[in-house]
Structure formats: C-alpha cells, structure tokens
Design a protein that fits this description.
Elements: H1 3-8, H2 12-21, E1 48-52, E2 55-58, H3 59-76, H4 82-87, H5 90-110, H6 117-125, H7 139-148, H8 153-170, H9 181-192, E3 194-203, H10 215-224, H11 226-229, E4 234-243, H12 255-264, H13 266-269, E5 272-282, H14 285-296, H15 301-307, E6 313-318, H16 320-326, H17 329-337, E7 343-348, E8 353-364, H18 369-401, H19 406-412, E9 418-419, H20 445-449, E10 458-463, E11 467-477, H21 484-516, H22 521-526, E12 536-541, H23 542-545, H24 554-557, E13 567-571, E14 577-587, H25 595-625, E15 628-629, H26 633-644
Antiparallel strand pairs: 1-2, 1-15, 3-12, 3-14, 4-9, 4-11, 5-6, 5-8, 7-8, 10-11, 13-14
Helix pairs in contact: 2-8, 3-5, 3-26, 5-8, 5-25, 6-8, 9-25, 10-21, 12-18, 16-17
C-alpha cells in the first residue's frame, strides 16, 4: 500500500527532490509554510523538533510536512490509510529528511555557499506545470497554480534553493566510486543462481464445514476489521464556472477598433513576394566563379556542383528578410532582383561565396480591410474576452482576499452554483459505480481535497485563459466504515473466509511438520483429509524471475531465502490461505565470465555506495554542528495526526 510513498523517498539523493517536486507543481502539497488544513495544528507551534545552528524545525512545521506527504501519497493511492503510513515509518522518514535539509543549509551558510536567484529562476522555468502550450514559462500559469495550492512564491523559492543546495553538496560525494571485481562478483553471481522448489497451497475456501456467523460474531468481526471496510473521505464539491463566453457580447470589437488594428498591422496585409532557390556555397571566390562559368555555359547548377563533388541545397519560400538573415543583405537583394531561372553570384555571404538560382517566384497580393475583417474580428474578440475574463477573475480574487465567502462571491457576480454528489478523491462515487465525474470537476478534485472546510474559496483554471471555476468543499464525510447492514453479506463471506484461513494455517503447519520429518510434499498434501490443489514445482534464476525490476510472487521469492531441503509456511494474504514452500535444490551462479553483468552490478552498487557516502557526510555534518533532535518529536506528531484523524483516513 505504501509503494508510492516508498518510491518517493527510497534514497537520500532522491528524497529531497521527491519532497520538493511531488504533486502537480514543485512542492505543491508539502511546502513547510502551508498551514495544516484538515488535521489542524494540535501540537504546540513553538515547541522545537530539531535545532541546527541558528535554524530550528518546529513541531507544527514537522506535522504539516508529514501531513502533506501523506496527502500527496494518498492522491496516487486513495486507499492509503494514515495508520499504515505512520506504521511504515512515514513520519520518521520525513523528520530525518527535514533535519538533514536544515543541517546542510546551516553548513552551506557557514561555508559561504549561496544559490543564486538566476539558478532558482531557471529551475522554476523548467517545471512543466508552469509552462504554456508552447513549452514557454507562463507567468499566468505560475500565479494561478501558486494561488490554487496556497503557496507563496518565496516559500517555493526557498524549497527549490534547498533542493539545489543539497543536490550540489551531496551528489559529488558519490562521484568516482570504484568497486573491485572481488567485491562485485559475489553479488553478480547471485543473479545467476538458480533454485527449484515445490509449493503447495492450502486455500481458505477448502473448508466447507464453517457455520454461518451469529449477529454477535459478525458484529465483533466487523469492529475488529473496520479498517478493511473503511470508505475514504468523501466530499461534495461546490463550484461555479466562469467561461470567456460570458463576455462574448462585450468583447465584440467596434469598427474603429477593427480599422485601428488593420492600420497597425498593415505590413502583415501588404503584398508579399517569396522565392525558392537552389543554393551553393563555396569557400573561395575563384571556385564559385568556376562553377558559375559552367552554368553560363549551359550546365545546371546542380550538375556543375555534382561534377565538383558538391551538392546544392534548396531554400523554400524565402522572404527577402529571411534570406538576408541567413546570408547577407546583398545576397537577398540580388536574389529578389533576378528573374526566375537566373543565376545570381558569386556574392559574399556569411558562410562563404554564394551562388543562387531562382527556381520559383510566388506573389501574394495585398489584402484589403474587407478581405481580412473576419480574421481581425476573431483576433480582437479573443483578446478582449481574455482581458475581460482576467479582469473579472481578478475582481473575484480580490473579493475572496477581502474576506468574501464562497456564497457571497457567487451571488454578487451572478454565477451559477453547482454541487456534486459525495465523491472520493479519485472522483468516484461510492453509491453509484457508474457515475462519471464531469469534465469541469476533474481539475477541481486535487485542490478541493487539499482544502479544509473553512479555507477560502479557490479560483482553479479548467482551460487556461478560457474557463475557470470558483470552488470550495461542501459537506465532508470523514473516512469511516459504512453501517454493517449495508455490507452484511460481504462481511459474512469474509468472516467465513477468515475462519477458513485459520484452519488453513493449522493444516499448513501440519503438512510442514510432516515434510520436515521426511515425507514428500505431495504425499503430505494427499493425506491432509481435505481436497487441496496439487503441489507445483517452480524455479528459475534470480535474474530471470526479477527481470526489469519485477518482484516475483512472495511464495517464489521465498525460495531464495531458504536453505536446501528446508520447508516453511507462508500466508497467501487477505485471508486466502497458506502456502507450504519446500526448497529442493540450489545451483550456484558464477558471473566470472560475464563482464557485462559484472559491470552492470558494479554501476548499481557504486550508486548505493555513493548514497552511503552522502548519508555518512550528513551524519558527520550533523555531529559537527551539534544538531539537537527532540527524541519525542516523531512520536508526538504520530499521536497528533492519529488523534485528529480518528476517522481512519
């Protein structure tokens, strides 16, 4: 369940980058200055979680950051529960990373290391969410996304500066790591090791004698397993759409505006001439003249060039300005003065001596105002709609900033209020599996599920510069299991499955004990007294079953942790039964002759060793600066989040 989170924070080198750039924009959900929305700040804001030099991490900052990491992980995995997140060490991971970040920042300050504003600007410009359709940085997208995610520009810049600083200080520590063959070979040989085993399954469904549960048994089972049935938090989304079409009438340009635009852009509507050329560039004037003489003697430019071991290039649909920029003004003037088919040159160009032959001449006549009126109207109307839309949304933002409520702003501006049914963060509806979230609502899911009920409404772009929505959460249902009556048949089935799983566990242990004493696994299964699937023989090389990073099933992976002829039991998971796993044999691998594999493993181990160097450096700096940690910080944050999140989300 925490695989998404583990990928975010798998290594120290990747940890900070992950924390900085998670979500829809860099640091969108985990910036330290974002106040806790849903959970609140139940810890003392002034209490110190850690201190390094002149910097300190407060308990509130730690709690907010842990919350944001959890919320972002849950966006990718809506079934993620806060209890699972904390039990897997999520809070401790974030705490260690924040302390390391603060420590390295203090160390860099002592060493006079500084990250320039230009470097941060370059990093921001590379973030895709801040770019327009052409891939260029958009100030409007930048402003809208920061507003939507409740992040100040300075907070974003601070975190990006820290990420760059950490990357610059830690990455060089892993450079130049060189591991010897004697160190790498054992690990490479492990990949070539082959194992074979026999696996038997004792399924929970094999036991047919399990009685239906009483109401008391069912209720007790449901209470103990409430997390299994918990429905994630559900919210109604309130929103009002603002579309540029709202301003279609007001954006209609006047005759004066149309004429003014035409006069300002007369050059675009004037008569134009474009030409295509064959071009040959030579390094010397003498060489160019020799080719020109051959052309004047009747050869084609391409033929004359070919006889000299050269080839012409084609210039398609060139304007005079484009040709002048590519060659020179003199070349362009001569090229546009010649007739079609004529040879021009040799003339001095920017890259050498140029010969041109005019192949085609295309003339576009001037276009009168009447001919381009519709085109100008479309352009001006789009410009005015965009300006009016920006003015209108700016007014709405000002109203919100001045304390206007969602309802007041909607009413004052004549907007249509719409409300969705209860939705989970993925947009699904629990009561109606066929429900399809409207297109206008999809962009609102992440921002609204990141807000608390008393947060100000947000203006969220649906289609940038064309369509926006003013949105806020409506009713919120905390994550909780549904009433037992609604899921009683499912719970009854899973109760019986759990009872069957206990019997499967006992029977699997009996089979294991018999096999450990010398009985063959298939014989022990046949003598179990219950109809069981036939044991299967499985095996292969470690490298093959884990190819491309894919993890094999747990019962197969277990073979690579066992001693020869040993036998173990393993739960199948989710009350499905138990496996009995017997390792039959091991064939050792030897990668001594596989240099490619050895070098591949060397590269992987070098990266791991480099990361270890970085971690050792962090610990040394922490010791040097006398960093003080609050031993109760993580436990305190875990209690606060668990208590404030008692619904189980």
């Amino acid at each position: 369940m925490l695989s998404v989170f583990r990928r975010f924070i798998r290594s120290k080198f990747g940890a900070f980058a992950a924390l900085i750039f998670l979500g829809i924009i860099a640091a969108a959900f985990i910036m330290g200055d974002i106040t806790s929305g849903k959970f609140g700040s139940s810890l003392g804001g002034g209490e110190t979680a850690a201190k390094a030099g002149g910097s300190r991490l407060t308990m509130t900052e730690l709690q907010d950051r842990v919350q944001r990491v959890f919320e972002n992980a849950r966006r990718s995995n809506p079934g993620l529960q806060i209890g699972d997140f904390l039990a897997q060490g999520g809070a401790a991971q974030v705490y260690d990373q924040l302390v390391a970040s603060m420590t390295l920042k203090e160390y860099a300050s002592d060493q006079k290391v500084h990250i320039s504003k230009r470097l941060v600007d370059a990093q921001i410009a590379q973030i895709p969410a801040f770019q327009d359709a052409a891939g260029n940085f958009s100030q409007e997208n930048f402003r809208q996304l920061l507003l939507r995610e409740r992040i100040t520009e300075q907070a974003l810049r601070d975190d990006i500066s820290r990420e760059i600083l950490e990357r610059q200080m830690l990455a060089p520590l892993g450079l130049g790591v060189k591991l010897t063959d004697s160190m790498v070979l054992p690990y490479a040989s492990l990949l070539l090791e082959a194992r074979q085993g026999t696996i038997a399954l004792v399924p929970a469904t094999a036991f047919k004698d399990i009685a239906d549960p009483t109401d008391a048994q069912l209720g007790d089972f449901y209470r103990k397993n409430a997390a299994r049935y918990t429905i994630p938090e559900q919210r109604r989304i309130r929103y009002a759409v603002i579309d540029a079409e709202r301003f279609a009438q007001a954006a209609q340009p006047t005759d004066a505006e149309i004429a003014g635009y035409y006069n300002q852009n007369k050059a675009a509507y004037a008569a134009k001439e474009s030409r295509s050329f064959e071009q040959l560039i030579l390094p010397t004037e003498a060489g160019a003249k020799a080719i020109a003489d051959q052309v004047k003697g009747g050869k084609s430019l391409a033929g004359a060039a070919q006889s000299a071991g050269l080839s012409v290039s084609e210039l398609k649909d060139q304007s005079r300005e484009a040709l002048a920029s590519a060659a020179s003004a003199a070349v362009a003037n001569a090229g546009f003065a010649a007739k079609q088919g004529e040879l021009v040159g040799p003339l001095r160009g920017s890259l050498g001596w140029v010969l041109l032959r005019v192949t085609t001449v295309s003339t576009t006549p001037a276009r009168a105002l009447a001919a381009v009126r519709d085109e100008i109207v479309t352009t001006l109307r789009a410009q005015k709609e965009k300006r009016l839309l920006n003015d209108f949304t700016g007014k709405i933002e000002d109203q919100i900033a001045n304390g206007g409520s969602f309802e007041e702003v909607v009413k004052d501006n004549g907007l249509k209020l719409e409300t969705t049914p209860f939705l989970v963060s993925s947009g699904k509806q629990v009561e109606d599996v066929a429900y399809q979230v409207p297109a206008d609502v999809k962009p609102l899911l992440a921002p609204v599920f990141g807000m608390s009920q008393d947060d100000d409404a947000q203006l969220v772009p649906i289609v940038a510069d064309k369509r926006y929505a003013l949105t806020a959460p409506g009713d919120i249902q905390a994550a909780a299991p549904p009433p037992l009556a609604k899921v009683k048949p499912l719970v009854a089935m899973q109760y019986k499955l759990a009872q069957g799983n206990e019997k499967a566990k006992a029977l699997a242990e009996q089979i294991r004990a018999k096999v450990a004493k010398g009985m063959k696994l298939d014989e022990a299964v046949a003598a179990a007294g219950v109809a069981l699937p036939k044991p299967q023989v499985v095996g292969g090389r470690r490298a093959d079953i884990m190819r491309d990073g894919q993890r094999p099933p747990a019962e197969v992976a277990m073979l690579f942790t066992m001693a020869t002829n040993s036998v173990k039991t393993l739960p199948a998971g989710q009350d499905r039964g138990y496996f009995v796993v017997q390792l039959n044999g091991i064939k050792r691998g030897d990668a001594g002759s596989d240099k490619a594999l050895v070098n591949q493993v060397r590269d992987q181990l070098s990266e791991v060793v480099g990361q270890e160097y970085g971690q050792q450096f962090e610990r040394a700096v922490e010791k040097e600066l006398g960093v003080r940690r609050n031993a109760n910080a993580v436990a305190g944050v875990q209690r606060a989040l668990a208590n404030a999140n008692s619904g189980g989300q």
